[in-house]
Amino acid sequence: MMNKHILIGIFAVLTSLTAGCGSANFLVYKDAKHFYVTSNGATLKKMLCESGDINRILTDSRLPEATQKDLHEGICSSNKVKERLLATLEDMTPEQRSALKLAFQANGYQINTIANC
């Protein structure tokens, strides 16, 4: 019985490491497209910023307004600086990061899921 618990624990650690849970950065997945929230790609801009999804996600997250503003600028700015966005994410409490991820999920996104391409 103990061996089963050890294997489950090892699996949980490996899963969280491969899913990016060890960092404030996280993978976002929707409609067969995926990207890290800190990426500069056109897919992120189109899906989050141009669609207006980021506004709904940030509102649903119920984070402090200053944090929402920093995240919006960090994700959608034409002068995006990955390190600045990472610093904002890292400064958030675990509960705030969880609220943000739940808001993504409430808006049809999956978090830390690797797409099968």
TrEMBL record:
<feature type="signal peptide">
    <location>
        <begin position="1"/>
        <end position="21"/>
    </location>
</feature>
<protein>
    <recommendedName>
        <fullName>Lipoprotein</fullName>
    </recommendedName>
</protein>
<keyword id="KW-0732">Signal</keyword>
